[in-house]
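Intended use. Records such as the aldehyde dehydrogenase (NAD(+)) entry shown here are meant for training and evaluating sequence-to-structure methods. They are not intended to support clinical decisions.
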Amino acid sequence: MGITTDRFMHHRKGAPTTPLITIAMTEIVAEVLEKNNLPGAIFTAFCGGAEIGQAIAKDTRIPLVSFTGSTKVGLMVQQTVSERFGKCLLELSGNNAIVIMDDADIPLAVRSVLFAAVGTAGQRCTTCRRLLLHDSIYDSVLEQLIGVYKQVKMGDPLEKGTLLGPLHTHASKEKFEKGMDIIKSQGGKILHGGSAIGSEGNFVQPAIVEISPNADVVKEELFGPVLYVMKFQTLNEAIEINNSVPQGLSSSIFTRKPEVIFKWLGPHGSDCGIVNVNIPTNGAEIGGAFGGEKATGGGREAGSDSWKQYMRRSTCTINYGSELPLAQGINFG
């Protein structure tokens, strides 16, 4: 996406696999603009592949490019835009963790993990990818979580009661299957699910995987319903595991202790752009500054300050007198 310099315009390129969503969104925005006596063409959309994104990134008429996608592609976009001294707003990969302390409200935490890990078939940037459980409650929480996973209804998302729809594309399904093989090869133990469904459609069984936080696969974002589960004994250890991945989008802790909450929220706590307490990693960020740190890109959408990133800042001075005020009060001639 970008904004041109000569007049206010917003150009949007959606994913090439979802052109109908791109068209529908464009029509909705255009309708709102026209109701407010503005041209609908202020918001324009493109359907196509990487060549359109590359053209936007290279176009010197677009001073700011806002990109949402993978860290790998985001880095390429940033390099291209920076070469022409343009600005980038990046919202990239997430590898989000939920920490459950020994004093947490367990039923609330289990419901939150289910929504965060299984909702949208694990295809949100804020999906919970990692679950950190205090050693004293590990077995109990895991037993409850597997129990609710078994109750998840899979099928048509348009039908009432369906909690798990298909993956985005057949390629996503293949990537899920390949990812499960990699997980097993790196010592991961599949506790639930993890298989592709053989019937029509790109359906997979949501997976719960017991694995070391040091496994290479844990450092990457597998964009699907895969939840890595790991133990910790102290808050400091949990924070260290949370911060150990390259990405820094969203994080959450479940606890009742104020001292734990404030450490988690403070400078020695989570290093993510979204830091939650007693709510999941996704779904509650509307209205706040949305975005993350590290390999998530550092950009912010929404929130009270995000609009400033779309503006050009100028420092303006007007002299209404006949005297010439000079910098630092210099007397020049």
